[in-house]
Amino acid sequence: MQISEKYSPQETEQKWYSYWLENKYFHSEPNEKPPYTVVIPPPNVTGILHMGHMLNNTIQDVLVRRARMQGFNACWVPGTDHASIATEAKVVAKLKEDGINKSDITREEFLKHAWEWTDKYGGTILEQLKKLGCSCDWDRTRFTMEPKLSQQVIKSFVDLYNKGLIYRGYRMVNWDPEAKTNISDEEVIFKEQNGKLYYLKYKIEGTEEFISVATTRPETIFGDTAVCINPNDERYAHLRGRKVIVPIANRPIPIIEDDYVDIEFGTGALKITPAHDTNDYEIGKRHGLPMIDSLDDNASLNEYGQHYAGKNRFEVRKLIAKELEEKGLLLKSEDYLNKVGTSERTGAVIEPKVSVQWFLKMSELGKPALDVVMNDEVKFHPEKFKNTYKHWMENIRDWNISRQLWWGQQIPAYFYGDGEHDFVVAEGVEEALQLAREKSGKNLEISDLKQDEDALDTWFSSWLWPISVFDGMLDPENEEINYYYPTSDLVTGPDIIFFWVARMIMAGLEYRKEVPFKNVYFTGIVRDKQRRKMSKSLGNSPDPIELMDKYGADGVRVGILLSSAAGNDLLFDEELMLQGRNFATKIWNAYRLIQGWNRDETIKANDSDNQAIAWFGNQMDKTVAEIADQFEKFRISDALHLVYKLIWDDFCSWYLEAVKPAFGEPISAEVYRKTIAYFEELMKLLHPFMPFLSEELWQNISERTPETALVITQQRKAGTFDKDLVKNFEISKELISGVRNYRQSKGISPREKVEIFTNADSFKNTELVKKLAHIEEINFCKKTDKPSFTFLVGSSEISIPLSENLDLAEEKVKTEEEIKYLKGFLISVEKKLSNEKFMAGAPQQVVDNELKKKKDAEDKIALLEEKAKTL
Q1: What tens digit of pLDDT does each residue of 299-334 get?
Q2: How many Å apart are CA 327 and CA 321, to the nearest integer?
Q3: Residue 195: strand pairing partners
Q4: Contact assessment for residue 346 and residue 176, using Cβ atoms and an 8 Å cutoff
Q5: Per-10-residue mean pLDDT for the chain, 871 residues long?
Q6: All domains of the chain, ordered by start, with CATH?
């Protein structure tokens, strides 16, 4: 079938994606084949496709498509995460636009709005992944808040509580005043901010004497319950046991002593605000200090803030500094660069806050999860992330799993009284009622029970993802969980190694007694040319959909993979997308060239054809083995580079040139069939990387049935290859390139035939060399007396008599200049080799490389000096 002059991704992509879906090529059911399972890192239901998603999902799709073509039953489970904080913020903002405050409606009403929002916007990112070509099993799409998945989360909570691993207690947490919930330590991003350091006067009770205390947050003085000094600080020895008056608040508080205080830092005296600082909280616990929480959930001052009540903390900071100065209670202020904790989700400055929360004990779960990574039962790619993981796991703290939100799985704890322990934990209210009756000894009713208002941390649902997507918590022995679990490979970013990867390993070992995956491939972060992380706020992130419209999905996939080594950040450059599109054009034009050849059944393949055919078959087998090795090492970018070189260099630049018939002449039908067969094999290798283009060409080559679509065709397996044959062809290429270089450097037409002389007794692929280098005669074991252009191929000397039209005097000058340059280069190499320090410290490979440079330079100098004599 004749194809169009230009490849059109727009026409091709939708056509083939629809075809793949109609024929259910992506759908998987347990069968007799070995499974290859991947679960998608579920993107936030609020999300739209960004460059990080593009990279991550392209890599997953490459792995899944390749596995499918290697005989595995490939199952890629898609889905989305309910993203408690992000989604609730979106819904609250939408309600505000409609004139509704969250505080004015019930939880049930709010959830109704949240589900409506999710149903309307939640599928956007999955549809965008289809445009990228992702071969997910869309029939298996899951959502972390769907009933069955929520049921499994609740089941896990109850189970862990009954095992004594979940507990409830008062702790200092990171409070996000914008989202109005606590967040984990890992969700706090520290940023440097310019601020002020204020030196306040705390008067000693009953005197005019004062002690100076430095703070960056004067608005928190309303929560002060002590001033702390180091017991060894002689400056304040006379103040031991005394009290000071809190500025403006006018409350007396004790002076206490604690080794935590650094005598050398600041004034050596600290204001202690146990409700608003993590370190103060610990000091407060040690000394039995009261806690005064002077901020409300919005981070505005409450009634303890006196006349500042209701005002925002940052507004109060400016106002109170002015008031302190007016009252003579501000000693001085100075500029101060401070590291401030901010919320990863909302960007709000975090407030430390003491509240009652639910926690999961991590020490018991963490130890086996560390062991399986350190002993490579779960392999990290690249391996360097094992150290990061080890450090975190060895310093792990209990996981705060409760969030002050409505969107999420509601904590299954039911309170029946006012006592601290008057609650039960159960999967449902009926079971809770029974437990509450037993625990309290009272004949309670359902109306006497009040469920905990908090929701579970989103990660507490996604840590079960590889199990819950196959309903493994509901039916631990079902066919699918037993077939698909453990999954094969996980592709994710290193930024969620603790949030998600570590916790999935813990859950897998706890509930399946098996690791959840065998390999974890960490992608890098996509950055711009200035090495900044791509983000909407910086405006440095291109729209992936626009990129795909401009360069085609295949072009973007290739472009983003070409510079994406595992674990290393990717510096985004749109030129790479252009390179991807150009690669597609190159392949398209190569097929058009082959298709345009007239075939003749009567013509037999000649020696030149047979040499090219034999070489390319072996070269392909060699490359297939190398590709397999790179995939084994999860070097996806390197695997693509090998495919790229095999197609662009080996096939298009060498093989097609070798078998191409003379202008206007037909090609042997036998050679044509072999060429098309090779092209088909190349499309199989290319398909995981460029699925749309490869399927389009595959379908064009011959009539295909749904059973022979490329997407399910088996790839060529790595076979044995003739190393000598491949090596000999490299020598032939070097010889051909040398002759072409002669023509180019001397301005001689490629069509002008040349004669060569060589001290070699023979060459392999002689006919092919003659054809591609346009050589009239090869004189073996002969030397020319004429002035000549001479070069080395291996240890063989090649001489081409110079054209009579050349200026020999000018040629002699050029030759002498080249000799001079090479002698200078040789001196630098010899200097390095005579350096004892270099020779003692350099790896043998580096030394060998320098020795080779020395020999090559000496050989070339000898050749050029011989040539100079003839000029």
Answers
A1: 999 999 999 999 999 999 999 999 999 999 999 999
A2: 10
A3: 336
A4: yes
A5: 86 96 98 98 88 92 98 97 91 92 93 93 91 97 97 98 95 90 87 93 93 94 96 92 95 95 89 94 95 94 95 95 94 92 89 93 95 97 94 93 96 93 96 96 94 96 98 97 98 92 98 97 84 70 90 95 74 87 96 95 93 96 96 94 96 95 92 97 98 98 96 91 93 89 78 86 87 88 82 84 68 76 83 82 80 78 70 64
A6: 192-350 (3.90.740.10), 544-721 (1.10.730.10), 807-871 (1.10.287)
DSSP 490: E
The DSSP secondary-structure symbol of 311 reads S
Structure tokens at 279: 């370190």
3-state secondary structure of 401: coil
State which amino acid sits at residue 410. Q
Contact predicate 631/737, CB 8 Å = no
Q: In 10 A of CB 264, how many CB atoms?
A: 6
Q: What angle do CA 678, 682, 687 make, to 5 degrees?
A: 150
Cross-strand pairs, 450: 415
Query: H or E element: which one contains 671?
Result: helix 669-686
- Cβ–Cβ < 8 Å for 464, 156: yes
CA distance to 43, 94, 109, 126, 259, per residue, from 120 (Å): 16, 13, 17, 13, 57
Q: Calculate helix-pair angle for 808-833, 844-870, nearest 10 degrees.
A: 160
> Which residues share a beta bridge with 397?
none
How far is it, in rounded angstroms, from Cα 479 to Cα 353? 47
Q: Which ranges of 605-668 would DSSP assign to H, the alpha helix?
A: 607-632, 636-645, 656-659
Query: Encoding tokens for residue 529?
Result: 């040319």
Write out the DSSP string of 255-303: EEE-TTS-TTSTTSEEEE-TTT-HHHHHHHHHHT------B-TTSBB-G
Please tell me the distance from the alpha carbon of residue 405 to that of residue 457, in angstroms, as a whole number. Answer: 9
Determine contact, residues 643/636, Cβ cutoff 8 Å. Answer: no
799 membership: H or E segment, kind and range: strand 796-801
